Amino acid sequence: MNDASKKEMKILGWLIGLFAVLYYLPVETTRFQGALIAAFKLVKWYAREHVLLCLVPAFFIAGAIGVFISQNAVMKYFGPKANKLLSYGVASVSGTILAVCSCTVLPLFGSIYMRGAGLGPAIAFLYSGPAINVLAIVMTARVLGAPLGIARAVGAVVFSVVIGVLMHLIFLKEERARTAQTQADVYVEADDKPPRPLWQTALYFFSMAAVLVFANWAKPAETSGAWYAVYSAKWWITSAFALLTAFTLWRFLGVTLWHLIAAAAFVGGVAVVFQGHPVAPFTAGAVALSVLTFFNGNEMKDWRDQTWGFGKQITPLLLGGVLAAGFFLGSPDATDSGIVPNRWIQALVGDSPSVFWVYVGGARDVPGWLALLWPVWTNFFASLTGALMYFATLTEVPILRGLMDSGMGQGPALALLLAGPALSLPSMLVINSILGPKKTFVYVALVVLMATITGMIFGAMME
Prior knowledge:
By secondary structure, the chain is mainly alpha-helical. It is 77% helix and 0% strand.
């Protein structure tokens, strides 16, 4: 059989498979219909809560990294020859500053990796960004108990470094080849004088990162204290940092003052029209910033092109992944709406195998082999389920509270906390587009494996 025939047979196979799926599609069942509704509810919720406030600013920041930070600077601090203590140290605690979800960190990860950052530090940043969220850790300690909160904080920092180092060692040969390809360009840039002082670039990035952080400041469980005070004033704080961003655009990046005044007038007008709806002026600000990139020189044009490049690469994958996650596991506000019933998950992560044994029809006492393997299974299943689910910032805590009230053990709870916020089905699709299937598979496998082992150890300690 020649190549043309093989190609046609492959097409025929796909068509037959698609026909079989459509032929037996259980559209008449309540479970299937509920899963479809849950999928669209989740993607609608994601579009409203995360695309405008999280992804759009993250795309702008990622594009700015590609334009305003030289490849030489990235290689100096995060490249293969950088000080390992510095590069891994900064990457492993980045989440305490960013406080983003597993999807929002992706454009930032892709940008620093494509600019020449080593695989190890880039992976450490990718994991720590959503995993080491100070507010989430504090909320975990208050809602789920201090031991889980402390274990989550320590585990997340250690995980980011260990997984980054292991990824570096596993793909050392490929990383050396990748470094060799970019080394010449880096040293050509080394003697070039930077277009502006470092402090100006740092202030510019700080202002944009602050807009991202405070616009997404989640509401804490308690309606008092410092966290709630920041939440109450978050849009005033966000506006202040947006003004600082505008100042840096004018003074450091050459955007004309009249353009900025027109943009501010547009945003102010939207704020007046849509009083009480802060997302509207925030969106108007993103639109105004996009328009500014068409009129103010090559740097702004390059920024726009880089931002759009990340947007068109990542957004379709994320939305498709969110749809799939909602279909299989349901939406956050539904108790049992995915194609996979929640009671299955509860039975498979319980502290005791007795619930599962009864559920599958066990007519006698739990066999010894099942009791022996149960801690391994529950922690692995919790890690894998957490890696596939999508958790927005802080949503993992109430979900886990419900699972623990249904019998979930301390070990599987920690395993899910360490795997869930850092991974999701949507993020896996995007990581695959950046790193390729082999590196993505190894990264996911390392997260799941380490979360499983850590959950088993923690569960044994808490008995």
